[in-house]
Design goal:
The chain has 199 residues and is of the alpha/beta class. The chain starts with a helix and ends in a 7-residue tail after the last helix. The strands form two sheets. Strands 2-3-6-1-7 form a five-stranded parallel sheet. Helix 1 runs parallel beside helix 2 (33-43). It has eight helices and seven strands, in the order αβαβααβαβββααβα.
């Protein structure tokens, strides 16, 4: 593989060691941000916990909050009678990967910031405070500084998400890296979990 990806992997191994430091992955679409997120998860102390991936761009803006934070019973029309656990709760003691975090609405950004600062949140329509421990990894192909200048992204959230930043060089310029990268993870994780993965 190229030196660029080697450096990224070395850095990833280092930053993964903490169980809760937020990490922001920056890179163009198709650079393997999800691969890097799972590499961080499986190398971190929370590797036995769940890795929950949320594509913030794929979920309609009006649903993202109830998806992330869950909702109380009868919180809105069409809500399940018993309420629902959010993805943050699903990611407890593991990793929450927020892909395309630049697409979050300002309102969702405010709630996410509160969660990152205090480790607590409310389900939509509930007043009971919930606390969850999870590491938040986020990724974006957008220029967040540009969005901050246009008041579309909160500066305080940017700093809170990007306590550590991982810049990924474009994979489409290094196609020869893709297979070695995938093989590298397969071998490493099959050893870690004591499973033989042959394909």
């Amino acid at each position: 593989g190229s030196n660029a990806i080697h450096d990224v992997m070395e850095f990833v191994g280092m930053v993964a060691k903490s169980p809760d430091t937020p990490i922001l992955i920056l890179g163009e679409t198709g650079t393997g941000k999800e691969l890097i997120a799972s590499a961080i998860h499986y190398r971190s102390p929370n590797f036995r916990g769940p890795l929950i991936t949320v594509n913030c761009a794929a979920i309609p803006k009006d649903l993202i909050e109830s998806e992330l934070f869950g909702y109380g019973k009868g919180a809105f029309s069409g809500a399940s009678a018993s309420g629902k656990k959010g993805l943050i709760e699903e990611a407890a003691n593991g990793t929450l990967f927020l892909d395309e975090v630049g697409d979050l609405s300002l309102e969702s950004q405010a709630k996410l910031l509160r969660f990152l600062e205090a480790g607590e949140f409310y389900r939509v329509g509930e007043t009971k405070k919930l606390q969850v421990l999870t590491r938040v990894i986020s990724a974006t192909n957008k220029n967040l500084n540009h969005l901050i200048e246009k008041d579309q992204f909160r500066k305080d959230l940017y700093f809170r998400l990007g306590v550590i930043k991982v810049q990924i060089p474009a994979l489409n310029e290094r196609r020869e890296d893709i297979l070695p990268l995938a093989k590298h993870f397969l071998v490493e994780f099959s050893e870690k979990f004591g499973k033989k993965i042959l394909t």
